[in-house]
């Protein structure tokens, strides 16, 4: 495991533990998206550079949603990411190709040590949630879907097959 991945997992675990203590009375299965992502997520260590396309800065959810209509061989992911210069886990979206390589249209190609940990989704599930919430993004908008992820976790049809090989 590389140093930035270890650092990212440590940050996520510390954040999840803190929220779990604060929300001890909650009846949610998952008290935070940190814990949800830790339980379901996997590392995505291989980033394709240069990115095949560029999106707008600070619009990762939109940047990664819109290509799904055109590219059936790309899959939407959400979770957290850091690089050599970030000391906090950033909620982020990216794409993966059939080889599991990260396609990140939002972050610059020259970022050093970018590491991603999150969940890859089936594209139909991404479209389903967007229709329900009328927003880009899945994890941060769970409240618009009745907190289903936080109370039940991900339904089996949500997860891309690459999630089964969590390494």
Structural account:
This protein is of the alpha+beta class and 167 residues long. It has one domain (3-165). Helix content is 30%, strand content 16%. It has a five-stranded antiparallel beta sheet. Helix 1 (3-22) packs across helix 2. It starts with a helix and ends in a 15-residue tail after the last helix. The model has no long low-confidence stretch (mean pLDDT 94).
In whole angstroms, the N-to-C terminal distance is 10 Å
Determine Rg (CA atoms, Å).
15 Å
Number of strands: 5
Low-confidence stretches: none
> How would the global form be characterised?
globular
Query: Could you give the order of strands across the largest sheet?
Result: 1-5-2-3-4
Roughly how much helix do the residues carry, as a percent range?
Answer: 25-40%
Number of structural units classed as domains: 1
Query: Strand portion, in percent?
Result: 15-25%
SSE pattern, N- to C-terminal: HHEHEEEEHH
Quaternary structure: single chain
Quick one: biggest sheet? 5 strands, antiparallel
Tally of alpha and pi helices: 5
Derived from helix and strand composition plus strand pairing, the structural class reads alpha+beta
Average pLDDT score: 94
């Amino acid at each position: 495991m590389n140093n930035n991945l270890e650092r990212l997992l440590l940050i996520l675990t510390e954040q999840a533990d803190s929220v779990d203590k604060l929300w001890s009375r909650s009846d949610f299965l998952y008290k935070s998206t940190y814990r949800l992502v830790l339980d379901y997520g996997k590392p995505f260590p291989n980033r394709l550079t240069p990115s095949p396309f560029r999106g707008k800065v600070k619009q990762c959810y939109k940047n990664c949603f819109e290509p799904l209509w055109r590219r059936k061989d790309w899959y939407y992911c959400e979770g957290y990411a850091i690089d050599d210069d970030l000391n906090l886990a950033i909620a982020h979206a990216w794409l993966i190709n059939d080889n599991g390589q990260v396609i990140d249209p939002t972050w610059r190609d020259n970022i050093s040590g970018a590491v991603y940990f999150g969940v890859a989704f089936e594209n139909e599930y991404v479209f389903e949630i967007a229709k329900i919430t009328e927003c880009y993004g899945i994890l941060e908008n769970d409240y618009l879907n009745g907190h289903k992820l936080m109370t039940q976790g991900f339904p089996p049809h949500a997860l891309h097959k690459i999630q089964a090989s969590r390494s």
